[in-house]
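User: Predict the full complex structure for these chains.
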Amino acid sequence: MKILLKNCLVLQAGGKTVTAAGGLNIVVHNSIIEYIGKEIPDERFDSVKDMSGKLLMPGLYNCHTHSSMVLLRGVGSGLPLNDWLFKAIFPVEDKLTEDDIKAGSELAALEMISGGTVSFSDMYFFPKKTAEVVLESGMKANICRPVQSFDPDEKPENCYRIAESEALFKEYNGAGDGRLLVDFCVHAEYTCNPQVVRAYSEICRNYNGNMHIHLAETEKEQRECIEKYGVTPAKWFDSLGAFDSDAFAAHCVVLTEEDAEILKNRGVSIVHNPTSNMKLGSGFAPISRYMDMGMNIALGTDGAASNNNLDMFEEMHLASVIHNGFMRNATAVNASEIINAATVNGAKVQRRAKCGKIAEGYRADIIALSLDTPHMQPCLDPVSSVVYSAQASDVCLTMCDGKILYENGEFLTLDKERIMFDVKKSVKRLYK
Amino acid sequence: MKILLKNCLVLQAGGKTVTAAGGLNIVVHNSIIEYIGKEIPDERFDSVKDMSGKLLMPGLYNCHTHSSMVLLRGVGSGLPLNDWLFKAIFPVEDKLTEDDIKAGSELAALEMISGGTVSFSDMYFFPKKTAEVVLESGMKANICRPVQSFDPDEKPENCYRIAESEALFKEYNGAGDGRLLVDFCVHAEYTCNPQVVRAYSEICRNYNGNMHIHLAETEKEQRECIEKYGVTPAKWFDSLGAFDSDAFAAHCVVLTEEDAEILKNRGVSIVHNPTSNMKLGSGFAPISRYMDMGMNIALGTDGAASNNNLDMFEEMHLASVIHNGFMRNATAVNASEIINAATVNGAKVQRRAKCGKIAEGYRADIIALSLDTPHMQPCLDPVSSVVYSAQASDVCLTMCDGKILYENGEFLTLDKERIMFDVKKSVKRLYK
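Assistant: Here is the predicted structure of the two-chain assembly.
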């Protein structure tokens, strides 16, 4: 399969300054970007698309979410964090079945695909159901079976979640021509005992795994960990070997300077979730400082119960303005850094080689934004247009691994009507 | 002209808690909402629309913008405020002609109408051109001729801008069946001498006018005013009579407690512009505190040069999460307050009676959001969906004074293609 994209204006992510170049032609051969240049190669194409009036950029990476929580969109909105979690969220989660997770993952896939997200790092129940949806949808994802161990005396060998995590890895890691990867996951410090974290971290290391963790989301978490163990969650995880593998930590709102140094030295990536952290009143990660330290910063929406959507354009927008506002410095975080966070840095978090850029030899994960809307005109500075002006709805093409998943409002791999029907069924049962 | 809107799910703004009610039928008679109820009145309608699967809410009020600055969208993005203003913005503004303002106002009208904004408070050059566009488009707006007086010795009688402001008021206030209102406007403390402010404020009072002011946007403005006059800008304006009329102040980022008390006591409304203030590194207005004081808080996008769009959904979203994040309190600002800020409170700023709510006897300023998108499903809490989940692109109907301006992607009063052509012409000349 060869696709020619003609007359492309392309955002070139990955550099210190993201730039845009026009008049380019792109040849996608199966899943790979084979050629980018001013000339059109003299060969036969299965499909030719004129991309005039559109802006192409790498597909977006949502590096921390609980995708099927879209079924809980808006539940308990406005409640304080603890009431939100214990009174609103947990009672619904308690009723979730495999079928719900399937429907929720599909709804999330529709939302992400139509908003330009090509890959996500997921952490939720029944991950096999999400895996099926990922494979069917044509998206990429890093899924995991989160390990929790609420009983302080539980032994690792009795923790069935560890066994499930290992089994998930063996069954699905690398499926779909590598579109599906399986990460390891300690849910959080406050939901796991130390012996389980230690043993599980060793397993992760043995598989050369990638560890996904909730870290330092709230003052409460930080304070209670210090009360319990005498150290911060970051130090606690480090001492138990959780950062001995590749690892990425969502939130990182309340890290101490020493915590940040630990993460930096261990090469742990940070996933910034500004909407969720701010909406729940937790604060926000000072990514400007982390970027200055040279850490890898990616973006995530968190779940739709605390966001309340999976819109990476909204997340880019928020991440691009809040730090300037809080630091009273118009140059604290710039648009290029935010585009990199949402693309190449995310690919790095997910350990995906040759992903996150539009470049020859890279995976063809390309999205196009229509510029034919009032709010995208004039497009004097495409980088700034993407970060500050665009909406997710501007996405008119989503291609993942060379396959078109969405074009001009149509989903090409998923049946929107059937999914909406299944979602209604789940919602009816969950909230009856 | 009678329009029946059937099967409506309606957000009821204006109360302490905004609620939603379904199964309603709405009769719009000319410019007025004549009836809302469960029954369908037995009469003849010129048009009947089934609103199933949509969410209706009052049209949005953008209470501080410089609409035709859409022509400068993205210019100087990422520069520090002073460089942005002096090196990037002013040189382009210097070239703006009446034709540019026409094209810019039209582009802004397209963006606002398609994003659910029915009315805006504008402050920019050549306001007559914007007035023409407002009248043509079917929108509402409060326009003004901003008064500046850079020469500290300039006398009011020599300030031609005052004369122009008065003339604008006489010519246009109340035009288009009241859709167009003309406000008075002192641009800012740092661009006006005191004798001009004093004299102009008296003129405003004599006309029973409404005063639009930039106030306390930056630390620098506050500090330099104190150095120059020994008082803050708020006290300075108050002492010169600027708040003797109805008045509204944009920004209010760095008010002292005493300043806030003055504004409260003088009944001055505050227009919160979170994106612009944060993006430019100025900070943000602590609206949670002002709301607790009982002040009238509305929302604005500011100009697209510092935003970089006129998207009131983005503004609602930002205003709804940043205060919670900054104050580390999930209940600092709630969704109902934000919907009221964007609707009824804005109508109050613009001194528009019977506007900003969907209620019998009110002006028919109604927008509908499609719920048939993945990110709006499930819609368990419509209030929360509007503030936290929606995008401007969800707007599928914009009605102002009973006239449909936009429906399912089509503009019914403006010629998008012709406007886009004119915009390109202006842009080419401005940036050649």
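Residues 98-114 of chain A form the longest helix (17 residues).
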